Amino acid sequence: MSTISGVPYVYVLRGSLVESEHAVAACAAGAAGEVVLALGDIDVPVFLRSAVKPFIAAEIVASGAAARFAFDTRELAVIAASHCGEEFHVAAVRSILAKIGLDARALQCGVHPPSYEPAAAALVAAGEVPSALHSNCSGKHAGILAMCVHLGFDPSTYLAADHPVQQRILAFCARLVDEDSEGMPLGVDGCGIPVFATSLRRAARAFARFAMLTELEDSDARALETVRDAMAAEPRYVAGTGRFDSALIAATGGRIVGKAGAEGVHASALRREGLGLVLKVVDGARRAVPPATVALLRELRALEPDERASLSDFEVPEVRNVAGRVVGGIRSRGTDTIPAGPAS
Amino acid sequence: MSTISGVPYVYVLRGSLVESEHAVAACAAGAAGEVVLALGDIDVPVFLRSAVKPFIAAEIVASGAAARFAFDTRELAVIAASHCGEEFHVAAVRSILAKIGLDARALQCGVHPPSYEPAAAALVAAGEVPSALHSNCSGKHAGILAMCVHLGFDPSTYLAADHPVQQRILAFCARLVDEDSEGMPLGVDGCGIPVFATSLRRAARAFARFAMLTELEDSDARALETVRDAMAAEPRYVAGTGRFDSALIAATGGRIVGKAGAEGVHASALRREGLGLVLKVVDGARRAVPPATVALLRELRALEPDERASLSDFEVPEVRNVAGRVVGGIRSRGTDTIPAGPAS
Q: Looking at the partner chain, which of A2, A109, A343 has a beta carbon nearest the beta carbon of B322?
């Protein structure tokens, strides 16, 4: 069984004692593949999950669907998003569907409540139930449906790995990571579409290309530029209020475009440094992703002091108990010593 | 920083690929301390969290409070429980509070919705909000309040580590794990009471003593016997419908009494083998606890084939996506090869 080898990197403290810890594997590399940071084994295949939504969005642009239906930057950002179901996210997805002549019934992403709690509470208060529009992946699914409509493919079977839109998406991603699309390990994502696995080394290089638009075919570069700039311009649409990716993109004025994936994946495109940074929390824990990402960005000297300061809730989160009392904190290797909470 | 060293043990598969993995540290030992199984470092202090609720319940019995207020086996089991807020759990906690002349306002465990989803949905449907009674720890808090009332201590300050009930509880636990109660690292639990850390080696020995009632002071043994037998007799009250501890106790007819704690802790008292088994998922993941526990119980030959069969949903869980499709599974080291889900 091929397994993931990481390095202990994120520590969850209760009082002054380490209660739990998370191992992380990570790679930072340039567009030509030069590795500048490696943590753990960077050559084991990892499912990138939603971290590759920007690449899926880019293929939707490359197909011509985005131009044909005149998607604006917010709509492009929500196609690349794992959004938390706020009203403005849902409105953007509705707008995409209206432009392509479909509605929420066409979405096959499954239904879960908005992960933004006030939005979930508002639904309950209004006596409404969540719909597929509230799924964190609804923008991506709406974008894939736009490709189906634009290219004349059946929009009712778009989840299948052998559907021509999924084949186009996988081929686009394979070009970016320099893999043979036939040979990439595939799985099924939480939202039902195919997901592929590749190494952190290849993924980091792909995100450097996304940052720099080099080492790419011209048409791929133009499509990636459109998506990159939409995410940089509309950070709230990439995740949502209080969410890490929105905060990271906003804090850096779009100089760093970050995108999380399920099971502890995170990818960043670093425009100033010309790097891609991709990490995997080995155990899949979401809570370790922001502290690890900020710590690694610091190792890469990619954050200015004020940017780091504005991300401190993500770099050194507090752990609170049910009643709201601070009982511990989360710290990464190399974090300056900061008390984690009362000892008792 | 003292950290926890475990061994990769639980694998989360998506299709046929390992997507995430969990390291586990574990110890099985007899009542005199003889170690029969060790995984990782068994001498690092670990917060046992709710796994020690049976010991807290035993001190409540030892104090005389349980006899004075005539708690029945269900009430004793819910004092030792991390329950999921079903109606019968809430009724048992209400009954404890009524017997001691208090009500839900005296509980300081904090409020969260029942973790049993139908119970949470029923509250919403009835237009009610969750109360402290629904907290998974409400039984324990009601039991601690019973000690306060019985012993004449202030019931309004019972969360404090220097409150005499907490001092009695910590002293009882310290006797069981052979630690100096002054020297044990303390933290604050999710529900607000003090928690202590001890090594897996000492914890396993304590759970062997809980199983066998040996190597104990007589009064401690009698109190532990009362709690052990209540948990064995009323497994539904220890956790709830579809929950691992209830299933484990029921499957073995009470021969194995298991109790989970937050952040990936689990403890079992094995009466036939005369062992305690305590494990910590290093990263704290709850999902790894049942597969790891069943796998380790199998290593100890503590499960009969029919018992194992009835626990298969916990030994080899499926991973489903939002729409309910099986996309993977969770497997432990040593699990017989079982396909984890479709490759794509």
A: A109
Chain B contact present for A108, CB below 8 A: yes
Question: Do residue B12 and residue A188 have CB atoms under 8 angstroms apart?
Answer: no
- What tens digit of pLDDT does each residue of B213-232 get? 999 999 999 999 999 999 99
Residue A121 sits at the chain B interface (C-beta within 8 Å):
no
The token pair at A64 is 């011509």
φ/ψ of residue B45, rounded to 5 = -65, 135
Contacting residues of A for B344, CB less than 8 Å apart: 161, 186-188, 194
Question: The complex's ipTM?
Answer: 0.94
pLDDT tens-place string over residues B71-130: 999 999 999 999 999 999 999 999 999 999 999 999 999 999 999 999 999 998 898 999
B188: nearest CB among A21, A110, A321: A321
Give B5-32 pLDDT, tens digit per residue: 999 999 999 999 999 999 999 999 999 9
- pLDDT for position A307: 98
Average model confidence (pLDDT) across chain A: 95
Contacts of A280 (CB under 8 A, 6+ apart): A4, A6, A24, A25, A26, A46, A200, A263, A264, A265
- The Cα A58–Cα A269 span in angstroms is 14
- Could you tell me which of A142, A131, A155 has the C-alpha nearest to residue A95? A142
Task: Determine the pLDDT at residue A1.
Answer: 52
Is the Cβ pair B284, A185 closer than 8 Å? no
- Look up residue A118 and give its two tokens: 């006030």
- Nearest Cβ partner for B188 among A22, A45, A325: A325
Q: How far is A94 from chain B (nearest CA, A)?
A: 20
Spatial contact of A19 and B284, defined as CB atoms under 8 Å apart: yes
pLDDT of res. B341: 47
> Is the CB of A12 inside 8 Å of chain B's CB atoms?
yes
Contact assessment for residue B137 and residue B50, using Cβ atoms and an 8 Å cutoff: yes
What pTM value is reported for the model?
A: 0.95
- Give contacts of B 133-162 with A, CB under 8 A: 135, 161
Q: Which residues contact A200 (CB under 8 A, 6 or more apart)?
A: A25, A26, A27, A42, A43, A44, A46, A278, A279, A280
pLDDT(B142) > 80: yes
- The candidate with the shortest Cα–Cα distance to A141, out of A101, A187, A93, A173, is A93
Q: Which of helix, strand or coil describes residue B321?
A: coil
Q: Between residues 314 and 343 of chain B, which touch chain A (CB distance below 8 Å)?
A: 321-325, 327-328, 341-343
Mean predicted lDDT score pLDDT of chain B: 95
Checking if the pLDDT of A343 tops 60, the result is no
